[in-house]
Structure formats: C-alpha cells, structure tokens
Amino acid sequence: NAGVMQNPRHLVRRRGQEARLRCSPMKGHSHVYWYRQLPEEGLKFMVYLQKENIIDESGMPKERFSAEFPKEGPSILRIQQVVRGDSAAYFCASSPTSGPTGRETQYFGPGTRLLVL
Amino acid sequence: GQNIDQPTEMTATEGAIVQINCTYQTSGFNGLFWYQQHAGEAPTFLSYNVLDGLEEKGRFSSFLSRSKGYSYLLLKELQMKDSASYLCAVRDLGGSNYQLIWGAGTKLIIKP
Q1: Residue A101 pLDDT > 50, yes or no?
Q2: Has residue B56 got a pLDDT over 50?
Q3: Any CB–CB contact under 8 A between B96 and chain A?
Q4: How far apart are CA A22 and CA B36, in angstroms?
C-alpha cells in the first residue's frame, strides 16, 4: 500500500511564476491536508479538503493561493505569482476519516521544497 | 486562544533516557499526537493519547494529563538515529474538529 505521494520533491521558480504542487493520498483516504513549514519552524495548517470540496481554508492566504481535490486525480496546491517569501517545504497529509471521534491519524507525504529565486 | 509549548532543543546521550514535554492550552481537546521528523523528511506518526495515562510502544512511551494540559514523550535506550525533531499536536474541538494544532517541535540531539 503506497504512502502519500507528492511531486515534485523540489521545485524552483522565479518570482512571478506559478507553482503547482501535487499530492496523491494513501489508498482509501479521502481527506487531504496541506501544511507549510519554514526551516526550524513548526507545521502551519493551510487547507483541508475532501473530494471536490474545500472544508477549511482558514490557514491559506486569501490571494495567490488556491487548492483543489478533484473527483479524479491528485490534490493540487497552486501558488500564483510566487514571491521569495513563498519558499518553504509544503507537506501534504491524508487521513481515512474525519469527525468528532476517532483517531484520524494524518499520514504525511515527503513534501515539496519550493525555492523562489 | 490556542497554544502548544515544547522546548526548542534538547541534548541527550546514546543509551540514556530523555523526556520531551508538551503543554497545551486549547478551547477543546480530542486527542494529542506525537510525530517524529528527521531533517528534510516528512513527519511520521509515533503515538496518540486521548485518555489520561501512559501509552507504551517499544522504546517510546507517551503520557497525557488532560487536567494539566500536559503530555510527555519518553524515549528509552537512545540511539543515534533518534536524533530528530519531535512534534506535539493537539486536536482542538473548539475550532474545527479535524484540524491539528502543532507545536514548533523539539530538536533532539543525541551524542555518543
């Protein structure tokens, strides 16, 4: 059973370009979470999605950032007109269920390291 | 508000025991997670506590006291490969019941 997959692992963009990060959850998982992590810092929640729905995007900047999780295919985190401050590691996690009870352990992908020149 | 506190860095000796503490203030509580993250890698799940007490899993144990808003991760018989950051995360029912609130992590350095 393959784990959470993310690609690319490393992405270099120039200021003003678009970055597109992909995440394929573990088989059987329909919940996806995106996090951002700066060096020596903790994980910052960005967005939580289920298939075809954005459940919570409270951690995502209102401008330039968007996320989707289509019925078919991976979840996509899109950053338009990137700036140097967007340089970070972006982790995707998935879980099999979500609700008021249960463990809902999140399993992480290897991350995408974005470098904006 | 929501707050998770962990020491920034700890140092321990190979073969010894180390305890990493985590205190939290959240409006609700539905479980506390510990993850391990090696430099440049993804966090990996270590343990989960939702009831008070100690959960043991091999060389690692995790303790929770909900009344004190306190948890610790205990690592025994330390090995060099245990050098990593250890992240404490709390599921806060006060907000979204699916969102984890993360501490900044404790960097553990193991010396021979």
Answers
A1: no
A2: yes
A3: yes
A4: 23
- CB burial string A72-109: b at 16+ within 10 A, e below: eebbbbebeebeeebbbbbbbbbbbebeeeeebbbbbb
**Closest CA relative to residue A23, chosen from A114, A96, A100, A110:** A110
The per-residue pLDDT of chain B, averaged, comes to 91
Per DSSP, chain B holds a count of helices (H) and strands (E) of 0, 11
Q: Cβ distance A48 to B98 under 8 Å?
A: yes
> Looking at residue B27, what is its pLDDT?
80
* H/E segment holding residue A95: strand A88-95
Determine the average pLDDT of the residues in B16-36. Answer: 93
A48, A90, A112, B59, B108 from B40: Cα distances, Å: 23, 11, 10, 24, 15
User: What is the per-residue pLDDT for B98?
Assistant: 62
Q: Which two tokens stand for residue B31?
A: 């479980």
Is residue A47 a contact partner of residue A34, using CB atoms and an 8 Å limit?
A: yes
Mean of all residue pLDDT scores within chain A: 90
Interface test with A, best of B99, B106, B108, B109 (most A CBs within 10 A): B99
**How high is the pLDDT of residue B81?**
96
Chain B nearest CA to A61, separation (Å): 17
B residues 1-30 lying closer than 8 A (beta carbon) to A: 30
The single-letter code of the amino acid at A55 is I
